[in-house]
Amino acid sequence: MTDGIISKGFTGRRRNSGLDKRDRIPPGQYETDQFPVLSAGPTPRVSLDRWTFKVSGKGIETLEWNWKEFLALPQETFTVDIHCVTKWTKLDTGWKGVSLDTVFSKLNLLSAPNLQYIVAKDVTGYTANLPLKDVINGKAWIVHEFDGKTLSADHGGPARLLVPHLYLWKSVKWLNEIILTENDQPGFWESVGYHNYGDPFLEQRYRGD
Ligand SMILES: Nc1nc2c(c(=O)[nH]1)N[C@H]1C(S)=C(S)[C@@H](COP(=O)(O)O)O[C@H]1N2
Ligand SMILES: [Mo]
Predict the structure, then answer these.
(1) 61: in domain
(2) What percent of the chain is helix, strand and coil (3-state, nearest 5)?
């Protein structure tokens, strides 16, 4: 029997080969062909000529990309399953974007081994926290195309974080900053009772799960 937990996460570009469809739907989830929109506030409109993305952290240089520079980074297209804590799962979603490995390769992270967490931020103040190990080695991207088309604003365009092996609230829409931190700092939903980590296959929906 294929173990859904092991087979996820460590192969960001897996094509789901050999995995029974049922094993790809986490406990308590149902499959949908829809792509619901879930946002805590109104959809911000970010124009491409003013779009920036910044990475910073204590003891490392701060890097910033504009839209043109971001698109000039190596792009990846990939297909993954996504899982929302409100119980829908969407299989085989197709995306294009930049791996966070590419972003972090521009920083000398080895010089700051104490930075083991990230806070991902959007333009409105929404945040999500993640362990650094969950966003490296092919497990996280900044995406700007869905299903072969420009990512719509309601789904986080111009660009959003995508961390498919965790519940989708971690995948910050309208991403404009990643801060590397020494301590794990709970984000928007994590501070009001959602699970700090959010593994859908372990059904880590709420604090204490
Ligand atoms: N910036 C931002 N990102 C966000 C949210 C949000 O409110 N603001 N909602 C999160 C939640 S709870 C979910 S389930 C997904 C929903 O993504 P979708 O609207 O593209 O389906 O975005 C996540 N990322
Ligand atoms: Mo959500």
Answers:
(1) no
(2) 20, 30, 50
